[in-house]
Design brief:
Blueprint: E1 3-8, E2 23-24, E3 27-28, H1 29-37, E4 43-49, H2 55-63, E5 67-71, H3 76-83, E6 92-97, H4 105-118, E7 123-125, E8 137-140, H5 141-150, H6 154-159, H7 162-168, E9 171-173, H8 192-203, H9 213-226, E10 233-236, E11 239-242, E12 244-246, H10 260-276, E13 281-284, H11 289-295, H12 298-303, E14 305-310, H13 317-331, E15 337-341, H14 347-358, E16 362-369, H15 372-379, E17 384-389, H16 396-407, E18 411-416, E19 428-431, H17 436-450
Parallel strand pairs: 1-4, 1-6, 4-5, 7-9, 12-19, 13-14, 14-15, 15-16, 16-17, 17-18, 18-19
Antiparallel strand pairs: 2-3, 6-8, 7-8, 10-11
Helix pairs in contact: 3-5, 10-11, 11-13, 13-14, 15-16
GO cellular component, one term: cytosol
Protein name: Spore coat polysaccharide biosynthesis protein SpsF
Length: 452
């Protein structure tokens, strides 16, 4: 039985154009991926598109002795079929992507051994339990050809394996030395920040091709540990939420003497560092959402979910819709967001808010509560799963309502400034100050408050 590793790659990446040819470890990224996959003797083919800009990939790899096949930009499944045309039906195919240089032949061999032991015909590294950048999939040539014959949906053909997963079932595999924190040990190249991080990893080793994936991840884990504590997470009705949530509501407060470009770069670093610390959500709203969008890397705002605050001009469905659409326009995409209204809407307005959930624009609904009565109203409304709580002091009138919200898994967000005490009911701290130091201090404050 032969095994062929097929690596898909293209130059027109939307988030980091041209990344396939960026230097990592002394060679273009895509070449490093191919050489690491071939280290144990596996056949390797890079499948790129016939678009003119991908001539650069094809010409470079061909000159370096790496086999290349080309096909439709969008029909990646068709490219894989072309890349495996010379194989027998019982041979195996391993799918890698050209932006994951940490993955290597050892990872491929471990996945194949797990499939042999389990009897599965399709297996993949479980990206829900393994850091992004260690993805790999394996299947037979026969099943790949079946998928080519039967998969007609554009999504199936672009992403190669959805038809296989639906039809064959799957082995979800976790490599033996995979680090535990999926977010902290991200090792793909999707953004400029990712590229810098991965370059640093490979610059510290003598043999970029020969170093094992597990040793690279150990080195990355040591760097993560040295960076200090990360924000803890909690499971809620909204999903997994970090205990610290940065807000963009003060992004408009550019300090005197700080130029726009310098301020924007500072905000970009703030968001990037927060995501690296494990932040899962970013809070934004009218007046600051545009600045969040233009001053941060789009890939970063997609790695963290958005909590979108809206302030309708009136208590009608039309007013709520207008407010939501303004924030979505500022965000530059139609969700998905956690939709938080600045006060509990009336019946028609609330029905319109629920409709945004039905439409897939909102994943959850929330309100801002400035007093005990507003907290009680949120507690009486089952759909409310995010409450920004502004209670100036412990209020016995709100205790029961806070308990109701807590028991149903709602997020209780406490607006927080440096020096504030962490309230006993707080699910997370909402950090308004646009400062990386403030975010780190919030992490430390929450950790201290919840450590026995």
């Amino acid at each position: 039985m032969r095994t062929r590793v097929v690596i898909q790659s293209r130059l027109n990446s939307s988030r980091l154009p041209g990344k396939a040819m960026l230097d990592v470890g002394g060679m273009p990224l895509v070449e490093l991926v191919a050489r690491r996959a071939a280290r144990s003797g596996h056949e390797v083919v890079v499948a790129t598109s016939v678009e003119r800009y991908d001539d650069r990939i094809a010409a470079h790899l061909t000159a370096r002795g790496v086999e290349v096949v080309r096909g439709s930009l969008d029909d990646v499944l068709g490219r894989f079929v072309t890349a495996t045309r010379s194989l027998d039906p019982g041979d195996r195919v391993v799918r890698l992507t050209g932006d994951n240089p940490v993955a290597d032949a050892d990872l491929v061999d471990e996945l194949l051994a797990a499939m042999d032991a389990s009897g599965h015909r399709y297996g993949r590294v479980d990206i829900d339990r393994v850091p992004e950048g260690l993805g790999a999939e394996a299947f037979t040539v026969d099943d790949l050809r079946r998928a080519d014959r039967e998969a007609v949906d554009g999504y199936d053909r672009e992403h190669v394996t959805p038809w296989l997963r639906r039809t064959l079932g799957e082995l979800l595999f976790v490599p033996s030395r995979s680090p535990g924190d999926v977010l902290a040990h991200r090792a793909t190249v999707d953004t400029l920040g990712d590229y810098v991080r991965v370059c640093d990893l490979f610059e510290r080793v003598d043999d970029p091709v020969g170093v094992a994936w597990a040793d690279l991840m150990d080195a990355l884990a040591a760097r993560v540990d040295a960076a200090g504590p990360r924000t803890p997470h909690v499971s809620t009705a909204v999903g997994v939420v970090s205990r610290v949530v940065p807000s963009s509501r003060r992004f408009t407060e550019r300090p005197a003497g700080t130029g726009p470009a310098v301020w924007a770069e500072g905000l970009r670093s703030l968001v990037g560092d927060a995501v690296d610390l494990g932040v899962t959500h970013l809070d934004t709203g009218p007046g600051d959402v545009e600045l969040l969008r233009v001053s941060t890397d789009p890939a970063l705002t997609r790695r963290a979910a958005v909590v979108a605050r809206v302030a309708p001009a009136g208590d009608t469905a039309l007013a709520l819709e207008a407010a939501v659409e303004r924030v979505l326009a500022g965000l530059g995409r139609r969700g998905p967001v956690v939709l938080v209204v600045d006060r509990m809407p009336s019946g028609p307005a609330w029905r319109r808010a629920r409709a945004y959930v039905d439409e897939g624009v909102a994943t959850a609904l929330g309100v801002v509560a400035h007093d005990a009565a507003a907290v009680a109203s949120a507690a009486r409304t089952p759909e409310v799963t995010w409450v920004e709580v502004h209670l100036p002091a412990p209020d016995a009138d709100a205790t029961g309502s806070l308990e109701v919200l807590h028991d149903r898994g709602a997020v209780l967000a406490q607006p927080w400034r440096r020096g504030d005490a962490v309230r006993p009911w707080a699910t997370c701290l909402l950090v308004e100050e646009p400062s990386g130091d403030a975010v780190r201090e919030a992490v430390a404050a929450f950790t201290a408050a919840t450590t026995p």
